[in-house]
Write a structure and sequence with these properties.
This protein is α+β, with helices and mostly antiparallel strands. The chain contains ten helices and five strands, in the order ααααααααββαβαββ. Residues 146-268 form the MPN domain.
């Protein structure tokens, strides 16, 4: 009895040691007993998408990312991950499923593989790109005065947390010049709750010789509005940290629809 893999391609295997969709559509000869789908042909006998791919690359070379829509940028990326297949329908399906390019890159692997044409390895490659982007943004903060680079802090936190399926409680630890010492996820919770222990926050700050912190957590619902519990927990951490010379600069809540600052809202 045959089974249909999650990507929708009959010969794909993502985690079993057999070829995934990238190998399946490569130029290598198919394994014994397996067949390879023939690419669609034009009247000239050329694969129909080759000319399209080169035109898209030329537009990117000449005009940069501004010359391409989100789905076209994603399609351009998928050229490398799925080398011998028309990737436009896959790119459009991903955007339709998740809503935007950033949400595609931020989506978890198990949801990415629900989209026809995306196997486990391609989903992992997309997450690798997300990780690289996250590291780049963190590098922009390292050694700089965080309070003077607030937009970079927000960009970094959004890239790290906006599309997580569960709540995370993250702490940015700062030195006496308000430069970033460390960025750590202290707790991961459920879709609507994360346990936070003020003594643990303060203990870790003392271990790192941090004199200030910025608290960050996400709302998987998408709405960054602070709850009463968010406000009370933040005030408790402030009261615990202050006698030990540790300042809580802010508590930022990240959602897909934006962010909220408890300090900006005058809640702390």
């Amino acid at each position: 009895m045959s089974s249909t893999p999650r990507s929708g391609f009959p010969d794909e295997e993502s985690d079993t040691g057999l070829p995934d969709e990238r190998d399946f559509f490569s130029d290598q000869a198919p394994a014994k007993g397996r067949t390879r789908a023939e690419p669609e042909q034009t009247n000239s006998g050329a694969e129909h998408y080759h000319g399209h791919r080169e035109r898209l690359r030329a537009r990117f070379r000449d005009g940069g990312d501004a010359a391409l829509a989100d789905y076209e940028l994603l399609e351009l990326l998928l050229f490398r991950l799925i080398p011998r297949r028309d990737t436009k329908p896959i790119a459009k399906a991903l955007i339709a499923r998740f809503g935007s390019l950033s949400e595609v890159i931020g989506a978890p692997v198990h949801l990415l593989t629900e989209v026809s044409g995306v196997g486990g390895n391609v989903a992992t490659d997309l997450k690798l790109i997300a990780a690289i982007a996250h590291r780049m943004l963190r590098g922009d903060l390292r050694g700089r005065q965080v309070l003077g680079s607030w937009s970079s802090v927000i960009d970094y936190c959004r890239a790290a947390m906006a599309f997580e399926a569960r709540e995370q409680f993250r702490i940015l630890f700062l030195d006496k010049k308000n430069a970033l010492i460390a960025d750590e996820v202290q707790q991961t919770g459920t879709v609507d709750h994360t346990p936070v222990y003020p003594r643990e926050v303060v203990r870790r700050a003392l271990e790192l010789s941090a004199t200030a912190v910025i608290l960050v957590h996400n709302h998987p619902s998408g709405d960054p509005s602070p709850s009463r519990a968010d406000i009370e927990m933040t005030r408790l951490i402030i009261d615990t940290a202050k006698p030990l010379g540790i300042t809580v600069h802010d508590h930022i809540i990240i959602g897909r629809d934006g962010h909220a600052s408890l300090k900006g809202l005058k809640l702390i």
